[in-house]
From TrEMBL:
Source superkingdom: Bacteria
Keywords: Signal
Keyword Signal belongs to the record: yes
This protein's record includes keyword NADP: no
Sequence ranges assigned to domain F5/8 type C in this UniProt record: 38-172
Cross-referenced Gene3D superfamilies: Galactose-binding domain-like (2.60.120.260), Single-stranded right-handed beta-helix, Pectin lyase-like (2.160.20.10)
Protein name (Swiss-Prot/TrEMBL): F5/8 type C domain-containing protein
Ranges for region Disordered: 47-72
Record's compositionally biased regions (Polar residues): 47-64
InterPro entries cross-referenced by the UniProt entry: FA58C (IPR000421), Galactose-bd-like_sf (IPR008979), Pectin_lyas_fold (IPR012334), Pectin_lyase_fold/virulence (IPR011050), SACTE_4363 (IPR059186)
Signal peptide: 1-29
Length: 730
C-alpha cells in the first residue's frame, strides 16, 4: 500500500522535555551500581619543560629564541613578532599528565591567551579556557594530557610582542591509586536480563523505563537494556528516548525474543518524525502478529537484528515518519516503510520491500528492489565499497564481557553472520576503562595513555579538556546514548592520524561556550594512508541546542584518509530549549578533508552555512538526508556572497574525483517562506565527479530551492510538496 507523501513538521505540538525519574526500578541481577573513582593525583614540583626541544610561531630577533623560555634562566627570554596570534611550544618527549603551567611574563605579556596540548604537535586542544595574562609570574593549575604544550597568545597587552622569561610545566608524579584498572561493573543504568528471570519481572523493568523515557526527548536519563543468550517469551520491549536494547550473544540468533521490540508514536499524536535517539542491536525477534514495528526518525539505528517476520517502519495509523537506518540485519518477511519519507539500508537481507515515498537507498542488500529512481524512488547498489560493522558488547562462554570488532569487508553484501559467526577479533573488557559520568576527562586520558580502550556507560559526561585518542586500533564505545558535553568551548574528542580507531555509539551535545569542533578525526593536514585499516565513526550523533543552548562551529571534521563514516546525525536543533538563529549557532555539520573517505547514511540538518563540505579526493557518499535551516529571519541574513543561501552538500572546487548516490535536501523556511536557496548541491563539473539520484523538496511550499545541483534541475516550490529529481550529474 502506497501512501501520499506528507510534509515533515517538527514543530507541531507541545514538546515534552522530560518526566521525573522513577524512584525505583525492579532489581536486575548481575549489575552493580557502584562506580570506580581514581584516587587524587600528586602534582610534581620538577619543571619537566626545562631544556626540552621548543619552537615558536615567530621571534622578535635572533637574541630571543623559543629555547630561551625553557633554559631555566630568568635573564633570557623568548619574544615574538609584534602581531596576533603567536605561540611558543615545548616537546616533553612523551605523553604526560600535566597538572601545572607556570608563566614568567616580561612586561610585554599576553592580554588573552590559552594553554593548549597536543599528542603529536599538529592536533591541538584547549587545556584551559581563554585566560587573562597577569604581570610577573602566573601559575595555572590544570588537568590535561599531552606530549606537546604551548602558550597560544590571542591578544597582546602592549604594542610589542609576547615575551616570556620562563615557561614551566609540572606533571603528575603519583596518581595515588596507581594504574587505572580495566573492566569493572557497568553501572546502575545498564539493565542485564537472563533467561532464568521471570517474564513478568523483565516486563516490569521494561515498562518502568519506557514510562519515563517515552516522551523524555531532552531529559538526562540514559539506559542500556542487555539480554544474555537464551530465549525470552511474552515480552513487548517499547523503546523510548535514550534507550538501547541489545543481545549479548556473539551472533543475533543467540538471543531470541518471542514478542515485540516496538517504537510507535502515540506520545506525539501518531507523528514519528521526532522519534530520535534509540537503538536495537544483535538479537532475534519473533513478532507476536508476524510484523514488528520500528517507527523511528534520525539517530535510531537497527543493527544486527534478525526479524523472523516482517518489519513495519511507520507508526500506528501510518501518520508521518522521517527516518532511518538498517545495517547487518535480516528481515525474513517484507519491510513496509509506508509513510517513511526516506530510508537507508546497508549490507542486509530482506524478504521484500513494499513502497517508497521520496528516497529509498539500498547498498549491498540481498532482496532489495531493482534500481528505478525516481519512480519508484529506489537507489540500489549491489555491493558496498568498503565496510566494517560496529563493535558490540557480548558475553563469552564463561560469562565474561568482551567487545567484538568485526573485520573489514570490501564490495560487501548481505549480513556478516550469514554463514556463522561474524569474522573479526575479540577484546576482553579488562582492556577497557569502564567510564562513569563522574569520571574527569583527565582520568579518561590517563586510561588511554595506559593503552586502555574506553567504554562509556550511560549518562552525561562533562568534558573540560580534549579526550585525545592517539593509539592505533583504540575502541571508544558508548552504551545507552552516553552523552559528551564540552565545557568552556573545548574540543571534546580528537583522534590522531593512526590506523583503525573506532568511535561508536556516542552523542556529542554542544555546550554553551562555542567549540570549534565536537569530534576531530586526524589533525589538520593528515597525510597517512589507512586503506588497510581505516578509522571509523559509527552511530555517532551531534546536537547543537535542543536540550539547552549550545554552540559549535563544526560538528565533525574528518582529516584522516580512508575514514569510514557509517551513520551520523548532525543536528542543529529546530525545536526544544536554546533554539534560535543566534541562540544555537553552528556553521557546518561535516567537513571531510581526508582522501578516499567513504560515508554511508549521512543525516545532517539545519546548519547555518554549508551542511556538508567535502574537500578530499576520491570520496564516496551513499545516502544523505538533509533539511536546510528552518529559521533564517530573511533572505539577506542567509546569503553566501551573491548566492542565495548555502548548499546542503558542497564538493570543493579543487576536487577531481568524487561520487555520490541517493542525496535528498528539503527546505522549510518557516520564519520567512519567501526565502530562496539557489541550489541544494554544489559541485565542480568534472568527469571524475559524479552524482546519482538527487532530489529536492519544498515542504508545504515554505520556501524555494531554485535548482537541484548547480544550475541543473527545476525549482522545488509550492504546497504540493513534490520532489524535483535529477537522475545523474553531470
Amino acid at each position: 500500500m502506497r501512501h501520499s507523501p506528507r510534509p515533515r513538521r517538527k514543530r507541531l505540538g507541545l514538546i515534552v522535555t522530560g518526566l521525573a525519574a522513577a524512584s525505583t526500578f525492579v532489581a536486575v541481577a548481575g549489575v552493580s551500581g557502584s562506580a570506580y573513582s581514581a584516587s587524587a593525583a600528586t602534582c610534581g614540583t620538577t619543571n619537566v619543560a626545562q631544556g626540552r626541544p621548543s619552537s615558536a610561531s615567530s621571534t622578535e630577533n635572533g637574541g630571543t629564541p623559543a629555547s630561551a623560555a625553557f633554559d631555566g634562566s630568568t635573564s633570557t627570554r623568548w619574544s615574538s613578532a609584534f602581531s596576533d596570534p603567536q605561540w611558543v611550544q615545548v616537546d616533553l618527549g612523551s605523553s604526560q599528565q600535566i597538572c601545572k603551567v607556570v608563566l614568567n611574563w616580561e612586561t610585554a605579556r599576553a592580554q588573552t591567551f590559552k594553554i593548549q596540548v597536543s599528542p603529536d604537535g599538529s592536533s591541538w586542544s584547549d587545556a584551559t579556557a581563554t585566560l587573562t595574562g597577569v604581570s610577573g609570574t602566573q601559575s595555572l593549575d590544570l588537568t590535561a594530557t599531552g606530549r606537546y604544550v604551548r602558550m597560544y597568545g590571542l591578544t597582546r597587552a602592549t604594542q610589542y610582542g609576547y615575551s616570556l622569561w620562563e615557561f614551566g610545566v609540572n606533571v603528575v608524579t603519583d596518581t595515588g591509586g596507581g594504574t587505572l584498572p580495566g573492566g569493572g561493573d557497568l553501572g546502575s543504568n545498564v539493565k542485564v536480563f537472563d533467561p532464568s528471570m521471570s517474564s513478568a519481572s523483565i516486563q516490569s523493568t521494561l515498562d518502568t523505563i519506557f514510562q519515563q523515557q517515552e516522551s523524555n526527548q531532552f531529559g538526562s536519563q540514559r539506559y542500556e537494556l542487555l539480554f544474555k543468550p537464551g530465549t525470552y517469551s511474552g515480552l513487548n520491549a517499547q523503546i523510548g528516548f535514550y534507550t538501547s536494547i541489545a543481545g549479548l550473544g556473539q551472533s543475533p540468533d543467540n538471543v531470541t525474543i518471542n514478542g515485540d521490540i516496538t517504537v510507535d508514536a502515540g506520545w506525539f499524536g501518531g507523528n514519528a518524525t521526532q522519534n530520535f535517539w534509540r537503538s536495537a542491536e544483535n538479537l532475534a525477534v519473533v513478532p507476536v502478529n508476524g510484523t514488528d514495528r520500528w517507527a523511528v526518525a534520525q539517530a535510531a539505528p537497527f543493527r544486527r537484528i534478525h526479524v523472523r517476520g516482517g518489519l513495519n517502519l511507520a507508526p500506528n495509523g501510518y501518520g508521518w515518519a522521517s527516518g532511518g537506518y538498517i545495517a547487518d540485519s535480516k528481515i525474513d518477511g517484507t519491510v513496509g516503510p509506508y509513510s517513511q519519507q526516506q530510508w537507508f539500508t546497508r549490507d542486509s537481507q530482506i524478504g521484500g520491500w513494499t513502497n517508497g515515498v521520496w528516497n529509498m537507498v539500498f547498498s549491498g542488500v540481498v532482496g532489495a528492489p531493482a534500481q528505478s529512481f525516481p519512480n519508484p524512488p529506489y537507489t540500489t547498489l549491489p555491493t558496498s565499497p568498503v565496510t566494517r560493522e560496529k563493535p558490540y558488547l557480548y558475553v563469552d562462554s564463561g560469562g565474561a564481557y568482551r567487545v567484538f570488532v568485526p573485520s573489514l569487508r570490501t564490495n560487501s553484501s548481505g549480513v556478516t553472520w550469514a554463514n556463522g559467526a561474524t569474522p573479526g577479533s575479540s577484546i576482553p573488557l579488562s582492556q577497557f576503562y569502564v567510564a562513569k559520568p563522574s569520571d574527569s576527562a583527565a582520568t579518561l586520558n590517563q586510561a588511554l595513555s595506559q593503552g586502555l580502550n574506553l567504554l562509556f556507560t550511560p549518562g552525561i559526561y562533562h568534558i573540560n579538556q580534549t579526550i585525545n585518542v592517539t593509539r592505533a586500533d583504540t575502541v571508544v564505545l558508548g552504551l545507552g546514548y552516553a552523552t559528551l558535553i564540552p565545557d568552556n568551548g573545548v574540543v571534546p574528542m580528537s583522534v590522531a592520524d593512526v590506523d583503525g580507531v573506532k568511535i561508536a555509539s556516542l552523542l556529542f551535545d554542544a555546550g554553551p561556550v562555542n567549540s570549534p569542533v565536537l569530534l576531530r578525526v586526524g589533525p589538520d593536514g593528515a597525510t597517512a594512508s589507512h586503506a588497510s585499516n581505516p578509522p571509523s565513526i559509527q552511530d555517532v550523533f551531534f546536537r547543537i541546542g535542543g536540550a539547552a543552548a549550545g554552540q559549535a562551529t563544526t560538528s565533525l571534521v574528518v582529516n584522516s584518509n580512508n575514514t569510514l563514516i557509517d551513520h551520523i546525525w548532525a543536528w542543529r536543533a529546530d525545536h526544544g530549549a536554546g533554539v534560535g538563529w543566534n541562540t544555537n549557532p553552528a556553521d557546518t555539520g561535516l567537513i571531510v578533508n581526508g582522501n578516499n573517505v567513504t560515508a554511508y547514511g549521512l543525516f545532517v540538518e539545519h546548519y547555518k552555512k554549508y551542511e556538508v563540505v567535502w574537500n578530499g579526493q576520491g570520496g564516496k557518499t551513499i545516502f544523505l538526508q538533509n533539511e536546510m535551516p528552518y529559521d533564517p529571519p530573511n533572505q539577506s541574513s542567509w546569503m553566501n556572497g551573491s548566492t542565495r543561501g548555502y548548499a546542503a552538500y558542497k564538493v570543493g572546487s579543487n576536487v577531481t574525483s568524487h561520487e555520490a548516490w541517493g542525496l535528498g535536501s528539503y527546505c522549510n523556511f518557516t520564519a520567512d517562506p519567501s526565502i530562496v536557496a539557489d541550489h541544494a548541491f554544489e559541485s565542480p563539473t568534472a568527469s571524475g565527479v559524479k552524482f546519482h539520484d538527487l532530489l529536492t523538496v519544498s515542504l508545504g511550499g515554505k520556501g524555494t530551492i531554485a535548482h537541484v545541483i548547480n544550475n541543473t534541475g527545476g525549482a522545488a516550490q509550492g504546497t504540493a510538496t513534490t520532489p524535483v529529481n535529477v537522475v545523474s550529474y553531470p
